[in-house]
Structures are given as C-alpha cells and as structure tokens.
Structure to design on (439 residues):
C-alpha cells in the first residue's frame, strides 16, 4: 500500500505563479500581463483578476469603458483558479433559508439570479470557445440519515415553488449506485448543476477581457485606496498609481487588510484539495455518472473526477493564518473516510489557498461609497455566482442599480469582535460545528 510518505504533492507555486495543482499542470496557454509602472488613468479600476473582477472588466470593456484590472499575482491565482470547480444552483444557503432572510419575493429574484449565473458561465464558455471541460450533474450527499428527508423536501420545494424540475431525490440505494461508498444515506441530484476546470475558465476569461480592450496588470498589489475629488486613487506595492472614476474591490479573501469596511464582514480561510493518480477503470466505480459531489457536512467534503480520470477531493478547512505545508497528509484521511478502497492510490497533486467567507455565508455586495463597490465572501459558491456578480457590478457602474440593490439587501452581519478578534471567535464557533460533523 502507498501511504502519505510515498505520495508526491508539489508544493508552493508553479513557475506561472499559480498553486502547484492539477489545474496548473493542465492549464491552457495564457499570455503573461505586465506589472503596472508609473501612473495610469481609467474610467474603472478593478482589484482582483478572478471571476468577479474579470467578468466586471469584460462587461464594462464591451460597453466602451476604459478599464484597468490589478492582480497581485497572476490572473486566476486566487480561489478562482484552484477551487473545486463545482457549479451549484442557487445561493450558498437553501431557498427556504433565503426566504426567511429576505422574504419570498426577493428569494425568488435571487433564485433567478443564480440560474442566470449558471447560464452566464455556459454562455461565456460557448461564446469564447473556452476549453474548460464543462460537465453536467451535481450530487448532494447526506452523511446522516435524518438529513435525507430534509433534502427530499427541499427538492420538492424547488419543484413546486420555483418550478425547478432538474433536481431529483436519491435513496440510499440510488446514491450508492452512483457514488462508490457506504458513507451516505441518500440525497439529491441536480442535473442542471455541474463542474468545470476552474483555472482554464479563469484564464479563458482573462483572454476575453484583454481581447475586449481592458488593460490587465499582473504582479501589481494594491496597498492603498484614497477617495478624492471625482474619483479614487489606488497605490500599489511597486509605487505605481491608478486614478479612476470608480473602484471595484473584487479580490475576495486576498484583499484582507486593504479596506476595513470589507474586513469586518469578509474573512479569509484556507481550503485544500488533492488529486489522485489516474484511476483508469476504477474511476467510474467512484462516481458512476461523472457528476460532482458535495456532502452535507458543515466542513464539506466535495469531490469529482477530472478529465483524465483522477479523483479531485477537497476536505478540511483551516482557520489559522497561513497555509498548511503537508496538504496531502491533511486531506488524504478525509478522502479515505469516504473511499477506504483508495488506500493504495497515489496522491499526485495537493494544493490549498485562500477563499473568503462571511458570518452567515451570504455574499457581501455593497456600495461602500459613491465611487467604491465590493463583491466578496462567496463562501464556496463562487463558480456560479462570481461571474454574474461581476456583471452586476458593471451594471451598477453604468447606473443600472436594480439587481445590485437586490444583492445589497442580503443581510451580512459583521464578525463579532471586529477585525482583530474575528479569528479567535470564529475558530471557536467553527470548531464546534466541525466536531458535530464527526458525531
């Protein structure tokens, strides 16, 4: 058998500045963009070269705006390029929870937005010929017996109240036929959700942005924002400056420390993924229909098959500052609890990085001032939501505020204890829920 000591995960960053992941190893070609030098002016400055920022840049550039995107590392090097690649339906919470938070009318509008988010991803892929291995199907797997009725009731709610008939209940026998484990008692399958290669989607989006005329600057970290006169001045670590009429803060968890108005509501955490060696014929014994899977734990296990037949498995979160060094050793036990039959399988890649959560897992979309807008804190739902929210930020810049104002109505309370105490207080709370997963 092959244990952790014999697995061989790359560490750190690959030469292109992305996490040394299976995604980076199979990335499409994308030209490097230069760092910013000197001073430039633009209609809109966007911080962050991930899904939100790139989508906002694309929609603004196509509308004739002069746009500058500042990316501290490489486009797609943040959560957009190293996440689980799962394209979910709806918001991070179920519609029953959303209804209680904002009322039925707004809940239905938010559901429609999320459906548009999936359609936007499909549309961008088709319009720009993006090679990102888009596949259909996502299974929600219940790890406790009493969760199954809740999942089946929720599928019924989506059909009856939202007209969404792509989700179907799964019994224990049905889920066992699809996912090669005894760990789950039932669940649902969403045939209109799916999964993709997240880094290739981000890189393809960056190429589309550049083709539309927006200017992207990599290796350019924003360190200061000053609102003055009719615009905003952004200073960078290298001394370069951008002066713009609007600023869109789209760096998600990697903006921490830049804007206290965001820091009180959005917190970075670390998440980790491993990729096995190619499984060959065994792959379909793990997931028979090639769907993605996410389970019902508070600290979610999520997994899917890659295009070359590897199991990509995400499990475990880290609430401490800084990435773990032995990612394979951390995640592999989570994988083996679900798939003990993979004990003999080599781990070829292991990586982690920062994403962002909010206290109640709802996205933080706000107008911070007349000149500064933010969208962050997707809490694991960014593949479907972030490109659309970038489009909605672009609409707000153009003065079209209806959909932006809808997102602003989502209640996102600040973390208790403020920026300095949010980590210890949150760790205590999240550790409790993580313990409940194991009971």
């Amino acid at each position: 058998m092959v244990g952790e000591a014999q697995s061989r995960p790359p560490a750190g960053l690959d030469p292109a500045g992305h996490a040394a992941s299976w995604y980076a190893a199979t990335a499409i070609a994308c030209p490097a963009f230069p760092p910013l030098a000197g001073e430039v002016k633009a209609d809109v400055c966007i911080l962050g070269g991930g899904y939100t920022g790139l989508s906002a840049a694309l929609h603004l550039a196509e509308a004739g705006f002069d746009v500058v995107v500042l990316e501290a590392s490489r486009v797609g090097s943040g959560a957009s390029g190293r996440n689980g690649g799962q394209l979910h339906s709806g918001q991070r919470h179920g519609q029953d929870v959303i209804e209680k938070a904002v009322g039925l009318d707004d809940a239905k509008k938010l559901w429609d937005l999320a459906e548009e988010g999936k359609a936007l991803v499909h549309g961008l892929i088709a319009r720009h010929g993006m090679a990102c291995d888009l596949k259909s199907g996502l299974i929600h797997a219940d790890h406790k017996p009493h969760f199954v009725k809740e999942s089946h009731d929720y599928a019924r709610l989506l059909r009856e109240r939202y007209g969404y008939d792509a989700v179907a209940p799964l019994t224990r026998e049905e889920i066992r036929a699809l996912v090669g484990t005894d760990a789950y008692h039932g669940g649902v399958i969403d045939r209109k959700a799916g999964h993709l290669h997240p880094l290739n989607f981000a890189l393809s989006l960056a190429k589309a942005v550049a083709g539309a005329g927006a200017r992207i600057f990599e290796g350019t970290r924003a360190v200061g924002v000053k609102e003055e006169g009719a615009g905003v001045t952004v200073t960078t670590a290298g001394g370069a400056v951008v002066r713009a009429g609007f600023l869109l803060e789209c760096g998600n968890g990697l903006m921490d420390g830049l804007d206290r108005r965001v820091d009180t509501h959005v917190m970075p955490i670390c998440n980790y993924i491993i990729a096995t060696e190619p499984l060959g014929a065994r792959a379909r014994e793990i997931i028979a229909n090639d769907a993605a899977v996410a389970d019902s734990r508070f600290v979610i296990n999520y997994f899917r098959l890659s295009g070359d037949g590897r199991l990509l498995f995400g499990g475990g979160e880290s609430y401490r500052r800084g990435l773990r060094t032995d990612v394979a050793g951390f995640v592999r036990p989570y994988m083996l609890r679900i798939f003990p039959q993979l004990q003999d399988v080599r781990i070829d890649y292991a990586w982690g990085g920062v994403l962002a959560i909010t206290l109640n897992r709802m996205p933080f979309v706000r107008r911070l001032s007349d000149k500064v807008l933010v969208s962050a804190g997707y809490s694991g739902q960014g593949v479907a939501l972030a490109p659309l929210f970038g489009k909605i930020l672009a609409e707000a810049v153009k003065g079209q505020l209806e959909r932006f104002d809808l997102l602003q109505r989502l209640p996102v309370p600040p973390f208790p204890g403020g920026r300095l105490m949010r980590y210890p207080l949150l760790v205590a709370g999240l550790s409790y829920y993580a313990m409940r997963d194991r009971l």
Summary: The longest strand covers residues 347-357. The chain has 13 helices and 17 strands.
